[in-house]
Amino acid sequence: MCSCNVTETIIDVRQIMPRMRHPLIFNTFDQLAPGEAFLLVNDHDPRPLFYQFNVQRPGEFGWDYQEEGPDLWRVRISRAA
């Protein structure tokens, strides 16, 4: 199956006010269809967000580091199929 025409949503939170980051991320996640994902870009390890997902969306998400610092983190967050 070719995914040639699939575009992935990228959320770069480095320029977003900290208090607005998690609501934006969860809102984006909640709009995903099963099996879809987005790429989160951050300037630090978003481990606290991972813990928050475990509490608020247990078993509903996938978390896959694409890049792990030291200056840039990229995490693919997916909705479980």
Layout of strands and helices, then pairs:
Blueprint: E1 9-12, H1 18-30, E2 37-42, H2 47-56, E3 61-68, E4 73-79
Protein name: DUF2249 domain-containing protein
Pfam families: DUF2249
Organism: Microvirga arabica
Written description of the protein model:
There is one protein chain. The chain is globular, with a radius of gyration of 13 Å. The chain has helices at residues 18-30, 47-56, and strands spanning 9-12, 37-42, 61-68, 73-79. Strands 1-2-4-3 form a four-stranded mixed β-sheet, covered by helices on one side. The chain has two helices and four strands, in the order βαβαββ. Helix content is 28%, strand content 31%. It is of the alpha+beta class.
Order of helices and strands: EHEHEE
* Mean pLDDT over the full residue set: 92
Proportion of strand residues: 25-35%
Structural class: alpha+beta
Which residues sit in consecutive blocks of at least 5 with pLDDT less than 50? none
Assembly state (oligomeric) = single chain
The end-to-end span amounts to 17 Å
Tell me, briefly, the overall form: globular
How many strands, which pairing sense, and closed or not: the largest β-sheet? 4 strands, mixed
DSSP helical segment count: 2
Please state how the strands of the largest beta sheet are arranged side by side.
1-2-4-3
What proportion of the residues is helical, as a percent range?
25-40%
Rg, please? 13 Å
How many individual β-strands?
4
